[in-house]
Amino acid sequence: MVDQATVNSSANRGASVPANAPLTAGVFGNLAELGSDIANLAELQVKLTAVDLQTSLRRAVVPATMLATGLVVLLAALPIALIGASELLADVLVLAHRGWAYVIVAGIALVLTIVLALISLPRLRRSFDNLVNSKEELERNVAWIKTVLAYSGRLPSQRRR
What we know:
There is one protein chain. Helix 1 packs antiparallel against helix 2 and helix 1 packs antiparallel against helix 3. It is rod-shaped, with a radius of gyration of 35 Å. The chain contains three helices and no strands. It has one domain. By secondary structure, it is mostly helical.
């Protein structure tokens, strides 16, 4: 025990590294710079996402309007049109039960609704393809931050591969 050095000798007690020492100034400076870079990237990412959303919304107006118009017209005209078509079908086919005419016309209306949805929905979905730009840029920014954090302050021989 006599030959072991003491960790806290009276000469070192209370001593600390000054805040303006080159090592601490470099660490704090690098951290501040990294924080600033991350804040700038976040700001640019938000701006890019906003631009992409505006473009996507502009592209979505026509298909969404088509879909909404189709739905409103269908809802407004459907009861009257279906009853009228069913009555005509019952008279033309000389059906004993008018109920069959109602079922046939309802099936035709269902098929028409499905066709309208199949035409409109893919167009509406494609209108949001611009968000791919924001996603790709976010992935690049995150990869850059990971690289900076992994390699900062390390000698080339200490870096992960």
